[in-house]
Amino acid sequence: MATYHIETYGCSSNRGESREIERALRDGGHRPAEGPEDADVAILNTCTVVEKTERNMLRRAEELAAETSDLVVTGCMALAQGEQFREAEIDAEILHWDEVPTYALNGECPTVTPDAEPVLDGVVGILPIARGCMSNCSYCITKFATGRVDSPSVEENVEKARALVHAGAKEIRVTGQDTGVYGWDNGDRKLPELLDRICDIDGEFRVRLGMANPGGIHGIHEELVGVFARNEELYNFIHAPVQSGSDEVLADMRRQHRVDKFREVVAEFDDRLDHWTLSTDFIVGFPTETAADHERSMDLLAEVRPEKINVTRFSKRPGTDAADMKGLGGTVKKERSKAMSELKMEVVGEAYEAMVGETFEALVVEEGTGDSVKCRDGAYRQIIVQNAAERGVAVGDFLTVEVTGHNTVYAFADPVGEDDGESDDAVEDDLAESAASSV
């Protein structure tokens, strides 16, 4: 069990995000530390209201970096002015708040709640389809809490999904320790059938498939991509954590796949889907990882170019086999993490930059900061629409949007009005007149 320390500054939105982070960490078996010096990971949720606040955030980040072995900076200043932390040479991971739990969980599987019951959060329905996994990763403590996979029937899960839709869910998130092995305990791989059946439910909604280990979906990946291809309700998105580009390290991790299986899964989705998102995870600094192994991971990342990447530094979990291995030095792990994080930002930024000027169908899934909303396109990429209230945009709406810009890990977009009757030139004239009148 790992420990965390979290500090939150700013508005109620930041406090709400910190609560979500803590909930995810607790579900993953983590517990709060007495202070940053006792924590495996410290999390600083920042504010950026005025210049004095920014100086305070930088100072506190510097203090925390000296007090803890692993620092994550998130929140408004991290997203709007993340470069200031880098320019100050503060040793920290700069992440969007919803990326923090995955990073802090160190590549472990998520822990589904004991009752594994669905939850409706706003317009998002959380549907745990099974508990446990078929893996025995040498670094993961979650296995001790969850055991082997236990899969309720397809009919039972479909009824739970139907209840969520009837309760108002516009997005159903199918979750589990490893969704790819759903049904394995009953002698049959049932995930494709389950997704088909959920997509057949009456209503207008989208479905996101949760984490599926490459070893879990390899063997059904051809059937699975067919389910994606024929169901527009499914986000064209998979989260398949590869963890390393080295087969030797994967063997030491006791992962159920090797790099070639991961590549085969990615290639099948590339061949069958025109527009999809790959999310994957890398653990850097595993005890047996050599410099050459790290370069293999870097090469794999550059090759497959996932649109969403979680980079975590290895940390020991008590009771796991990897905890007994002689670890790498903290400096080595930090250097490798920094190198991979820099490549990650390049790859992800390139993907979002390519969206600029394009038009997408999107679902508004939740409120953002200020008067903004967070949307997801058909490939589950995050799109922010600002000035939502004055545009009449609300959570649960399906929109056509045009992407106008990006901030590396998400895009900005404007709704495309069907009957606004104004040309772009007319809108620009209106904006010019407004600007002139305000001078």
Automatic annotation (TrEMBL):
<dbReference type="InterPro" id="IPR007197">
    <property type="entry name" value="rSAM"/>
</dbReference>
<dbReference type="InterPro" id="IPR023404">
    <property type="entry name" value="rSAM_horseshoe"/>
</dbReference>
<dbReference type="GO" id="GO:0051539">
    <property type="term" value="F:4 iron, 4 sulfur cluster binding"/>
</dbReference>
<feature type="domain" description="TRAM">
    <location>
        <begin position="353"/>
        <end position="417"/>
    </location>
</feature>
<keyword id="KW-0411">Iron-sulfur</keyword>
<dbReference type="InterPro" id="IPR006466">
    <property type="entry name" value="MiaB-like_arc_euk"/>
</dbReference>
<feature type="compositionally biased region" description="Acidic residues">
    <location>
        <begin position="416"/>
        <end position="432"/>
    </location>
</feature>
<dbReference type="GO" id="GO:0046872">
    <property type="term" value="F:metal ion binding"/>
</dbReference>
<keyword id="KW-0479">Metal-binding</keyword>
<keyword id="KW-0408">Iron</keyword>
<keyword id="KW-0808">Transferase</keyword>
<keyword id="KW-0949">S-adenosyl-L-methionine</keyword>
<dbReference type="InterPro" id="IPR005839">
    <property type="entry name" value="Methylthiotransferase"/>
</dbReference>
<dbReference type="InterPro" id="IPR038135">
    <property type="entry name" value="Methylthiotransferase_N_sf"/>
</dbReference>
<dbReference type="InterPro" id="IPR002792">
    <property type="entry name" value="TRAM_dom"/>
</dbReference>
<dbReference type="InterPro" id="IPR013848">
    <property type="entry name" value="Methylthiotransferase_N"/>
</dbReference>
<dbReference type="InterPro" id="IPR020612">
    <property type="entry name" value="Methylthiotransferase_CS"/>
</dbReference>
<dbReference type="Pfam" id="PF04055">
    <property type="entry name" value="Radical_SAM"/>
</dbReference>
<keyword id="KW-0004">4Fe-4S</keyword>
<dbReference type="GO" id="GO:0035598">
    <property type="term" value="F:tRNA (N(6)-L-threonylcarbamoyladenosine(37)-C(2))-methylthiotransferase activity"/>
</dbReference>
<feature type="domain" description="MTTase N-terminal">
    <location>
        <begin position="2"/>
        <end position="109"/>
    </location>
</feature>
<feature type="region of interest" description="Disordered">
    <location>
        <begin position="414"/>
        <end position="439"/>
    </location>
</feature>
<dbReference type="InterPro" id="IPR058240">
    <property type="entry name" value="rSAM_sf"/>
</dbReference>
<keyword id="KW-0819">tRNA processing</keyword>
<protein>
    <recommendedName>
        <fullName>tRNA-t(6)A37 methylthiotransferase</fullName>
        <ecNumber>2.8.4.5</ecNumber>
    </recommendedName>
</protein>
<dbReference type="InterPro" id="IPR006638">
    <property type="entry name" value="Elp3/MiaA/NifB-like_rSAM"/>
</dbReference>
<dbReference type="Pfam" id="PF00919">
    <property type="entry name" value="UPF0004"/>
</dbReference>
<feature type="domain" description="Radical SAM core">
    <location>
        <begin position="119"/>
        <end position="354"/>
    </location>
</feature>
<comment type="similarity">
    <text>Belongs to the methylthiotransferase family. CDKAL1 subfamily.</text>
</comment>
<comment type="function">
    <text>Catalyzes the methylthiolation of N6-threonylcarbamoyladenosine (t(6)A), leading to the formation of 2-methylthio-N6-threonylcarbamoyladenosine (ms(2)t(6)A) at position 37 in tRNAs that read codons beginning with adenine.</text>
</comment>
